Amino acid sequence: MAKINPSVFKAYDIRGIYPSEINEEAAYLISKSLVKFLNAKSIVAARDMRPSSAPLYEAVLKGLKEMGVKIFGVGLSSTPMHTFVMNFENADAGIMITASHNPPKYNGLKLERKLGTSIGEGSGMEEIKEMVLSGKLDGENGAVGNPEIIRKDYLKEYVKFLYGKFSSEDFSDLQVAVDAGNGMTGFILPHILKKLKIKYYPLYFELDGPFPNHEANPAKSENLKDLSALVIEKKFSLGVAFDGDGDRVAFVDGRGQPISIDFILAMLSKEFLKEKPGIKVVHSVSSSRIIKETVEENGGQAVICRVGHAFFRRKVREEKAYFGCEISGHCFFEDFFYADSAIFTMLHVLRLISRTGKKIEDLIRPFKKYFHSGEINLEMKDKLAAINLLESAYGSGFQSRIDGLTVEYPDWWFNIRPSNTEPLLRLTIEANTQELLQKKKKEILEKIVK
């Protein structure tokens, strides 16, 4: 039995503290198990800029070479760029070494199968976990010899791909503040922004895995303070922030105020539906009602999905949806391989602003119809008991179990679900008025928080 901490196998990826939970031995065994599980003949390997990513990357390459597969060695990469390379090379599988937005002490592996579909809970993670923990990984994968690692200028190819989806004429008279958070977008953005002639002010573009300025998690408002201050100081109309591996994005308006990703989803959905009537748009159980209303009012189909990167990727591809965003800032596009790209999202937003000549505040104002709590994190010993208690207490509402428990009433709704990454319950409430929102929040918390 391999001495690997079983807790590193999460619903979306493999992640833990380095080196006590995730280390070179784990990376080596996981790489071999992925090849064996998929019977892969070719695989893409890439890494982010964390100090621990380099030794983990070498361990992955060692495991892949022993399995005799064709290896595309990308080296430094964002997660979306890794997905691009998988499709560019038509590879059978991929391993991206990153802990995304987590603090520096963490690292992990994101696993993908052909065409860039994520491996997670219900789509192979359980089998890979069993394979790694059992140690049943002897033997090669049908190849012989010592396969070389194919290395190309994948950054050049990726920038060329992104540039081909847009035009410098789409971005006239734009100035934007950009916070790369010392993460992987700082490696890519200067190239694509230069080609598209977008004027920008860079903040924390240096690759620095310990994240000396702030956590590379744009979902937390405290990590947007420097960006907000810069937007106000320079009198820019928009600020954009990215997470550590470049697959999540956040925006602040000209007043430095964070913008809910729901408003970005609604805004872009309305725009896309003008050119592509009837498209499907995917949203999460935690998304505002304004998403479904906007999509359907403009002739589209709204599709609901449980929260989680891997689940969203699967749903977007299965439904052949054109677009979708989950609440944490992952946005998925049909023309980005049904996968998520933070840079792609930013470029669509900037193009819309340029086309309309409007400020982002004006573009999102029509969607500010409801009052939304955001995610309320609750530490709970017995999470299932709390959910069952609310299911019984609100039996008069329309209930759904797509992800945790959702209960809907005409003038308000709530969702409560267990976190897939932390020992928490996540509660979201939305109501037609601020007064009703506060009333229902107090009511629910009094029932389950003792």
UniProtKB/TrEMBL annotation:
<dbReference type="InterPro" id="IPR016066">
    <property type="entry name" value="A-D-PHexomutase_CS"/>
</dbReference>
<dbReference type="InterPro" id="IPR005845">
    <property type="entry name" value="A-D-PHexomutase_a/b/a-II"/>
</dbReference>
<keyword id="KW-0479">Metal-binding</keyword>
<feature type="domain" description="Alpha-D-phosphohexomutase alpha/beta/alpha">
    <location>
        <begin position="262"/>
        <end position="370"/>
    </location>
</feature>
<dbReference type="InterPro" id="IPR005841">
    <property type="entry name" value="Alpha-D-phosphohexomutase_SF"/>
</dbReference>
<dbReference type="Pfam" id="PF02880">
    <property type="entry name" value="PGM_PMM_III"/>
</dbReference>
<keyword id="KW-0597">Phosphoprotein</keyword>
<dbReference type="Pfam" id="PF02878">
    <property type="entry name" value="PGM_PMM_I"/>
</dbReference>
<dbReference type="InterPro" id="IPR036900">
    <property type="entry name" value="A-D-PHexomutase_C_sf"/>
</dbReference>
<dbReference type="InterPro" id="IPR016055">
    <property type="entry name" value="A-D-PHexomutase_a/b/a-I/II/III"/>
</dbReference>
<dbReference type="InterPro" id="IPR005846">
    <property type="entry name" value="A-D-PHexomutase_a/b/a-III"/>
</dbReference>
<keyword id="KW-0413">Isomerase</keyword>
<feature type="domain" description="Alpha-D-phosphohexomutase alpha/beta/alpha">
    <location>
        <begin position="8"/>
        <end position="132"/>
    </location>
</feature>
<dbReference type="Pfam" id="PF00408">
    <property type="entry name" value="PGM_PMM_IV"/>
</dbReference>
<protein>
    <submittedName>
        <fullName>Phosphomannomutase/phosphoglucomutase</fullName>
    </submittedName>
</protein>
<feature type="domain" description="Alpha-D-phosphohexomutase alpha/beta/alpha">
    <location>
        <begin position="156"/>
        <end position="256"/>
    </location>
</feature>
<dbReference type="Pfam" id="PF02879">
    <property type="entry name" value="PGM_PMM_II"/>
</dbReference>
<dbReference type="GO" id="GO:0000287">
    <property type="term" value="F:magnesium ion binding"/>
</dbReference>
<dbReference type="InterPro" id="IPR005843">
    <property type="entry name" value="A-D-PHexomutase_C"/>
</dbReference>
<dbReference type="InterPro" id="IPR005844">
    <property type="entry name" value="A-D-PHexomutase_a/b/a-I"/>
</dbReference>
<comment type="similarity">
    <text>Belongs to the phosphohexose mutase family.</text>
</comment>
<dbReference type="GO" id="GO:0016868">
    <property type="term" value="F:intramolecular phosphotransferase activity"/>
</dbReference>
<feature type="domain" description="Alpha-D-phosphohexomutase C-terminal">
    <location>
        <begin position="375"/>
        <end position="446"/>
    </location>
</feature>
<dbReference type="GO" id="GO:0005975">
    <property type="term" value="P:carbohydrate metabolic process"/>
</dbReference>
<keyword id="KW-0460">Magnesium</keyword>
